[in-house]
Amino acid sequence: MLDIKISRKVYHSKSGGVRALNNVNLTLGQGEIIGLFGENGAGKSTLLKSILGFVSYEGEILLDGEKINRRNIARFSFATCEHSFFPNLSPDAHRDFYRMHFGTFREKRFEGLMNFFGLPMRQPLKTFSTGQKNQFEVIMALCQGADYILMDEPFAGNDVFNREDFYKVLLGVLEPSETIFLSTHLIGEVEHFVGRAVLLHKGEIAGDVSVLALEEAGKTLMDHMKETYGYHADRVSRALGDM
Fold first, then answer.
1. Hey, is 82 helix, strand or coil?
2. How far apart are CA 235 and CA 231, in angstroms?
3. Residue 124 φ then ψ, to 5°
4. DSSP SS3 for 62
């Protein structure tokens, strides 16, 4: 169980402070697939980086009652569009590195996902396209053997067919104990992939809902988000009228 209690996260600058997160309280259980949604600047990336200890914050994050430290940090993996791999190394060399440092490394899953995306095994990652780099980033996050897999806009640069097929493959390979916490703007694509949706607005939790509950109520996730964020359907026509 991952318990997140962030009272505040502020980014400081010479011109003052910008509050990125405020009173964020979440509990993530093992085996969940959770979507993290919100406008640009809502605090999604900051929340994921806070869990991993990449940024400081006021509050507490506990994994099974223990603070995140050297003993349990390997239970987390992270896929980011900023990339965390070694650009001069090949996928094959990354596999050797992960084998050495993670006894939980999923060899069979690694080979299967590399074949699925058709990525070259011995070519330096710096020669990959943006889409291929993002695919490899996701592969390594999924193959580390972590219990909690955090993803921050991991599918940028990938075509829609690769993304749709990947969701299906992912549902087929995940173990019951693996948790996915996915930040993305591709709401329509992941609606039937995630089981729970967490909505952020200006650094605060604006909603936390089961996708099944929405379906039973006859609502789509997009409908729920429009209601939550107060979306005005006539905003385009009003904007054009002012031009």
1. coil
2. 8
3. -55, 140
4. strand
* 68-80 pLDDT, tens digit each: 998 999 999 999 8
Pairing, β 204-210 against β 196-201: antiparallel
The whole-model pTM stands at 0.90
Which pair of tokens denotes residue 45? 């990336």
Tokens describing residue 5: 């209690």
The per-residue pLDDT for range 131-177, each reduced to its tens digit, is 889 889 999 999 999 999 999 988 766 666 667 777 888 888 899 99
Selected from 3.40.190.10, 3.40.50.80, 3.40.50.1820, 3.40.50.300, the CATH number assigned to the domain covering 33-43+71-229 reads 3.40.50.300
Task: Please state the domain extents for the chain.
Answer: 33-43+71-229
Cα–Cα separations (whole angstroms), residue 243 to 231, 237, 240? 21, 10, 5
Q: How many angstroms separate the CA atoms of 119 and 99, rounded?
A: 19
Using alpha carbons, list the distances in angstroms from residue 186 to 31, 43, 182, 221.
22, 17, 10, 11
